[in-house]
Amino acid sequence: MTFLDFVYYTFIFVVFFQVLLYIFFYGRFAFLKQNKESQKSIPISVIICAKNEAKNLTRFLPSIIEQDYSNFEIVLINDASNDDTLQVMEAFASKQDNIKIVNVKNNEAFWGNKKYALTLGIKAAKNDYFLFTDADCKPVSNQWISEMSSHFNSKKAIVLGYGKYAKTDKSFLNKLIRFETVITAVQYFTFTKFGLPYMGVGRNLAYKKDTFFKANGFINHIKIRSGDDDLFINQVATKDNTTICISENSFTESVPKTTFNQWITQKRRHISTANHYKKTHKFLLALLYTFQFLFWSLALILLLAKYQWIVVFSLLLVKIIVQYIIIGLSAKKLGEKDFLFLIPFLELFLIATHLIIFIKNCISKPNHWK
């Protein structure tokens, strides 16, 4: 058997695996019809940790205040900001009696650690159910709290939501960011539906107070400055206590990065945090990435060598069509669809970028928090 023979048969196996993966694994989410949950009026604490976010709070906090929900407080955590963040918080609090401010000063043992600030805010929250978002986020509707809280019940103590990014016209970077956000969401929603929840995003995440305190908060990874959302969920989420919320009114929308350097810095933090996931999750995620990498690498080798190129090109098209259908249906659920025709190019770019970031992280540690 020649080298190209080996590459060819390996490529056929990889395509077969990926097609089955999209149809029977990711298809679970793509074809999901989530039942409408009955609305509840449980007391909710919306928790927002902010560091140097005066402008974003001024812009987005009104969308939290204006939520159509009967019983909620807003816990604003000022994490040692050096701009007007605290003053902005105090201005809102003077007009709203359901706003509570937690002013955190730098602590030598936990300097620059968002988890320390969040812990103080969580301890100050009066309600038994928490809903988290970021200072640069806004709910897409005034039903955000209602939709997310409706998924709590006697068994489900963690609700994973979707945090989208705002659309910018004529921007490849913006399409890339939103594509990756969709792919990441489809992945963690699908894993959750199969009983393997492994992460959530702090832009839109809810859990019960006792879930936090039974796990001793962030203590198991307090020295890892990032991961207040995904590492905590990776630690405490199970097939029994975790559910998802994908109704359109439950989404939040964030301000996306506008330069590749900013985005790469953000991705370095995210990828470095994933190294601390449970071994099973790391293995599965690495396996999925490996098959993506092999698919494109082997296809390019075979096409450049013109080896069985008609069969190779046909298999390439089959995989792309199946991917387009499944990701297209999933993206439609999440209100994203304008980048679909770019899926192959965006996927190739992401695969290469993640590989470069992984290598870079092995050489030097990324920065964390602000």
From TrEMBL:
One of its GO terms (molecular function) is hexosyltransferase activity. The keyword tRNA processing does not apply. SUPFAM superfamilies: Nucleotide-diphospho-sugar transferases (SSF53448). Keywords: Membrane, Transferase, Transmembrane, Transmembrane helix. Residues 45-179 form the Glycosyltransferase 2-like domain. It comes from the Bacteria. Pfam families: Glycos_transf_2. InterPro entries: Glyco_trans_2-like (IPR001173), Nucleotide-diphossugar_trans (IPR029044). The chain crosses the membrane at residues 6-26, 283-303, 309-327, 339-359. This is Glycosyl transferase family 2. It comes from Pseudalgibacter alginicilyticus. The lineage of its organism: Bacteria, Pseudomonadati, Bacteroidota, Flavobacteriia, Flavobacteriales.
